[in-house]
């Protein structure tokens, strides 16, 4: 594994290795000294072209817990606002000796461009690109689900996958990189995924995704579900009218108090409610649902640090420099088509 | 010392005709060495009070469990499950940047914690001493033991750091080109008996390459 750009090409072995490593990392957060020396002397750059709270802080905390040096870079207030290109920014980071670049970008494919262009040697971790992928979010969701799933079956979650778990992902699928990354990863891990959204908020070609699609949240809940993931309505990406009114959206596709009560009525006492954050309370999720004991919103944030520690550790702790210095230019060219494959 | 004991099995298999290996400890020898070490630990600690055994993955952990069972056999006050733990040192190694990425193993401490305890680190092979150095660093982050001792099944020499074992199953003079392989049922399966084997390195490498 050289880069983490998406979950579509992530093999089951690699996914489970990341989750298992994250499990060990989670134990560090409970210790007196919450720090490991594994990445001492490595530099991680958080390159954020888009606003973010939890992802950037989570990556920063993860890198610091592994003793890496962290440089935060946000496009606002940098030379990017003067028109500097991604290439020049990347080469500046390269010259400063970055070992890993955590990139969030509004353009789908920007991390892949950075990883495959040969501009930099650093490992590239996709922290969300456009409407394409957000692999660490999918991994932390899978980590949260796996912990829940293992607790239910009373087994150890180490080495386990999500076989048999029924996951509903509901909301603004069209604009959601979280939904896309989750669909691919959960498929790899053996879960059964159903997307629920208004037809206007489903992307073209969704029928070819490895999941079911429904327009009716109530019917999907009644069919039985182990985890409900509500997606944020991404108003900032909506340049057209996708649903008549927020009240209608909340009533038909939001997880409101009535649907929370319905889970109890359906005797689905072990169903968890997930949300990648930030939440629009009252729109896609009601406050009662977000604050209920079923909600794993804060657990997801906590697990995010562990999963990102695992990702940074697995990408950075090994011998990276030797690979990059011994490979000839021809070899680099040969690996370009495969470089997107994180395995 | 996982690297000295486990990583060379494939080489061993692929070069069987040229491989020169000899068994230096049989299952019975290992058993006797552990029995002696268990008594030594009790003697050095003047009893079993505040004693914890921390095995270093992978093969140190089953050895620690076996030692605890022996301690419990001689002192009924000991609960073997309560004094054994596993200490992963992967993240504290000084060669992380020079090797392919290693997956970390689980660290499990006894519920009593390690503060004020006498810790006996248990590993299979003591070689350069770097694993033990990493283990000492890992311990510091977990608490402050009263004392740390070291018990190993085999001491093969070639130390690169000022580290010495308090309890040694067998001192084994080796050449640095030789490989010491420890086979334990808990890790390697019950098909092959427990044993410690020396494989002569150069012949294996030529045969394997």
UniProtKB/TrEMBL annotation, chain A:
Residues 164-314 form the Aspartate/ornithine carbamoyltransferase Asp/Orn-binding domain. InterPro entries: Asp/Orn_carbamoyltranf_P-bd (IPR006132), Asp/Orn_carbamoylTrfase (IPR006130), Asp/Orn_carbamoylTrfase_sf (IPR036901), Asp_carbamoyltransf (IPR002082), Asp_carbamoyltransf_Asp/Orn-bd (IPR006131). The lineage of its organism: Bacteria, Bacillati, Actinomycetota, Actinomycetes, Micrococcales. L-aspartate binds at residues 82, 177, 232. It is an enzyme of class 2 (transferase). Gene3D superfamilies: Aspartate/ornithine carbamoyltransferase. It comes from the Bacteria. It catalyses: carbamoyl phosphate + L-aspartate = N-carbamoyl-L-aspartate + phosphate + H(+). This is Aspartate carbamoyltransferase. Residues 2-146 form the Aspartate/ornithine carbamoyltransferase carbamoyl-P binding domain. Heterododecamer (2C3:3R2) of six catalytic PyrB chains organized as two trimers (C3), and six regulatory PyrI chains organized as three dimers (R2). Carbamoyl phosphate binds at residues 54-55, 104, 134, 137, 277-278. Keywords: Pyrimidine biosynthesis, Transferase. One of its GO terms (molecular function) is aspartate carbamoyltransferase activity. Pathway: Pyrimidine metabolism; UMP biosynthesis via de novo pathway; (S)-dihydroorotate from bicarbonate: step 2/3. It comes from Arthrobacter glacialis. GO terms for biological process: 'de novo' pyrimidine nucleobase biosynthetic process; 'de novo' UMP biosynthetic process; amino acid metabolic process. Belongs to the aspartate/ornithine carbamoyltransferase superfamily. ATCase family. Catalyzes the condensation of carbamoyl phosphate and aspartate to form carbamoyl aspartate and inorganic phosphate, the committed step in the de novo pyrimidine nucleotide biosynthesis pathway. Pfam families: OTCace (PF00185), OTCace_N (PF02729).
Automatic annotation (TrEMBL), chain B:
Residues 29-168 form the Phosphoribosyltransferase domain. Its EC number is 2.4.2.9. GO terms for biological process: regulation of DNA-templated transcription. Transmembrane segments: none annotated. It catalyses: UMP + diphosphate = 5-phospho-alpha-D-ribose 1-diphosphate + uracil. The keyword Transcription applies. A motif (PRPP-binding) lies at residues 119-131. Pfam families: Pribosyltran. SUPFAM superfamilies: PRTase-like. GO terms for molecular function: uracil phosphoribosyltransferase activity. Keywords: Glycosyltransferase, Transcription, Transcription regulation, Transferase. The keyword Cell inner membrane does not apply. Also displays a weak uracil phosphoribosyltransferase activity which is not physiologically significant. Belongs to the purine/pyrimidine phosphoribosyltransferase family. PyrR subfamily. NCBIfam families: PRK05205.1-3 (NF003547), PRK05205.1-5 (NF003549). This is Bifunctional protein PyrR. It comes from Arthrobacter glacialis.
């Amino acid at each position: 594994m050289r880069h983490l750009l998406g979950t579509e090409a992530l093999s089951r072995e690699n996914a489970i290795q990341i989750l298992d490593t994250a499990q060990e990392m989670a134990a560090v957060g409970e210790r007196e000294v919450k720090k490991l020396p594994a990445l001492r002397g490595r530099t991680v750059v958080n390159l954020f072209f888009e606003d973010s709270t939890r992802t950037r802080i989570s990556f920063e905390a993860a890198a610091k817990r592994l003793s890496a040096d962290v440089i935060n870079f946000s496009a606002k207030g940098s030379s990017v606002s003067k028109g500097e290109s991604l290439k020049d920014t990347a080469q500046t980071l390269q010259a400063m000796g970055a070992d890993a670049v955590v990139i969030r970008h509004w353009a789908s494919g920007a991390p892949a461009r950075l990883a495959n262009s040969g501009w930099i040697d650093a490992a590239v971790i996709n922290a969300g690109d456009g409407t394409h992928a957000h692999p660490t979010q999918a991994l932390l969701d899978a980590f949260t689900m796996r912990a829940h799933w293992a607790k239910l079956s009373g087994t150890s979650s180490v080495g386990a996958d999500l076989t048999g778990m029924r996951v509903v992902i509901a909301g603004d699928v069209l604009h959601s990189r979280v939904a896309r990354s989750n669909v691919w990863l959960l498929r790899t891990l053996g879960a059964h995924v159903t997307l629920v959204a208004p037809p206007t908020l489903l992307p073209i070609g969704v029928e070819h995704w490895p999941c079911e699609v429904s327009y009716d949240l109530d019917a999907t809940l009644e069919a039985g579900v182990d985890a409900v993931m509500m997606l944020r309505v991404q108003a900032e990406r909506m340049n057209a009218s996708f649903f008549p009114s927020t009240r209608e959206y909340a009533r038909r596709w939001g997880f409101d108090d009535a649907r929370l009560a319905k889970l109890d009525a359906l005797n689905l006492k072990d169903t968890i409610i997930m949300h990648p954050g930030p939440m629009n309370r009252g729109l896609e999720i009601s406050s009662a649902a977000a604050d209920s004991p079923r909600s794993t919103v804060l657990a997801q944030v906590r697990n995010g640090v562990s999963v990102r520690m695992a990702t940074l550790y697995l990408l950075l702790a090994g011998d990276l420099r030797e690979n990059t210095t011994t490979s000839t230019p021809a070899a680099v060219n040969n690996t370009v088509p495969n470089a997107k494959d994180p395995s | 010392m996982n690297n000295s004991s486990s990583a060379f099995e494939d080489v061993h298999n692929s070069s069987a005709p040229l491989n020169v290996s000899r068994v230096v400890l049989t299952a019975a020898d290992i058993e006797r060495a552990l029995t002696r070490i268990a008594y030594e630990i009790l003697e050095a600690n003047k009893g079993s009070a505040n004693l914890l055994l921390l095995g270093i993955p992978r093969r140190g952990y089953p050895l620690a469990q076996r030692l605890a069972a022996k301690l419990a056999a001689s002192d009924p006050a000991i609960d073997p499950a309560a004094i054994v733990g596993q200490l992963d040192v992967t993240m504290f190694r000084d060669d992380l940047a020079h090797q392919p990425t290693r997956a970390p193993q689980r660290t499990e401490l006894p519920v009593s914690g390690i503060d004020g305890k006498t810790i006996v680190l248990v590993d299979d092979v003591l070689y350069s001493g770097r694993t033990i150095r990493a283990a000492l660093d890992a311990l510091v982050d977990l608490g402050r033991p009263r004392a740390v001792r070291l018990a190993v099944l085999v001491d093969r020499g070639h130390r690169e750091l000022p580290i010495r074992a308090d309890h040694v199953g067998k001192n084994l003079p080796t050449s640095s080109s030789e490989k010491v392989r420890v086979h334990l049922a808990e890790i390697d399966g019950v098909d092959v008996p427990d044993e410690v084997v020396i494989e002569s390195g150069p012949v294996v490498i030529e045969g394997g390459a």
